[in-house]
Fold this sequence. Notes:
By secondary structure, the chain is an alpha+beta fold. About 25% of the residues lie in helices and about 20% in strands. Strands 1, 2, 4, 5, 6 and 9 form a six-stranded antiparallel beta sheet that branches. Strands 13, 14, 16, 17 and 20 form a five-stranded antiparallel beta sheet that branches. Helix 2 crosses helix 6 (about 245-250), helix 2 crosses helix 8 (about 270-285) and helix 2 runs parallel beside helix 9. It starts with 5 loop residues before the first helix and ends with a strand.
Amino acid sequence: MAGCASGEKSGQQAVTQQDAQQIAYDATVYGFPLVIMDLTQQVFTAVPAPCPQGAPVNQFGNKKEFPDATFTTVVRPNADTLYSSAWVDTAEEPVILSVPDTQGRYYMMPLMNYWTDVFESPGSRTTGTGAGTFAITGPGWSSTLPEGITEIKAPTRWVWVIGRFACTGSSDYENVWKIQNQLKLTPLSAWGTDYTPTANVPVDPSVNIKVAPLDQLLAMEASTYINYFCQLMVENPPYEVDAPLLDRAAEIGIKPGADYKTYFSGLDNDIKSAIQTGYRSALKDIPTTNLGNIKNNWQMVYGTGDYGTNYILRAAIAYQGLGANLNADAVYPSTFVDSDGEEFSSDKKYVLHFNKDVIPPVNGFWSLSMYNDKMAFADNPINRYSLGSLSDPPLIQNSDGSIDIYIQRDSPDSGSTPNWLPAPASGGFSLTLRLYWPQESVVDKSWAPPAVQLVE
């Protein structure tokens, strides 16, 4: 549906400036995941061979170690799991994902479509830790698969596979590497052969690898942005429940496949201005959206990975934490203040006390991570950035089964060192609790972490 007939255009110009501004605002929020996902995919795959930062299309890029305090590329990084990520393109044919037996090690392999919804999540919670073979098929594919392969039908052409494997630390790296090295993505036509991915893949020189995807998006003019997601909607079709929003968006020419730059150039200046205002207002509001409920001064974010028509939450998560999991797979509460509502300060001492009956209820594992005022790991003398149920050495429990975590700049007494989460040398900080495969009391919103208490 490239472009619009002149009669159609004149009818659409009958919308008021106020309506045009609101429609543009809503459409900007709606299309945000598509645009940021496509830009992210382009940058990730703009490499000739797999590396920790990326991989060619239909190949895995594996993180081989945890980030440390020098890592500032991503805010609130993770020191619990090693990642294996891939961008799968189903345009030509299905791609078969082979996962080895992880020997009981916790893992998840969520598959995310271009709308940032997780539509399947193979792993410990759903398919167990044994070997698995899954065919990722595109929205237009319909045929039969070889015996023993489970079909996973993708609602969009592109699929982001974001694998995570539990890892206790540097002494455990090699065990995870062995698993990562056995992950495979095989085109259906090559199944049953000794398939080897293409080496030294040509890189598209037009991809901007010097500017972060989010910054590229924020630099776009309204007509460029809208045209971008109009094109992306062709191979990444909207959901049926989106029809009311799309019907409204069509009033200012926004449709799958529309040549929006041409359409926009023919609009009256006042309508153009209204659309640009709505666009800029949306980009300003998306990152300030309230992401969740506050419980015991922890921000609890629910509904990630399965957004329905909550377009503003979907856009806000894509802006602030692209790649968020289903709550059934992981929940990440964060806190910036103590039980009195005072911001954390590194010159004070705090304790997080879990009674035996409120220790994070998980079927996988849990961890608590410390971040400085730049939302990076806090440099500290023992290079510890998180601790939890997989800690080595293990956390020490009190005689009644409870656990105290000491959050402070200086080391507590030697007997409490395993439970010490070092604060930064100066400034403020924040904490994120990660719960992998949380139990029902977390998912149904009845459980929340206790507030962090100021000691002195």
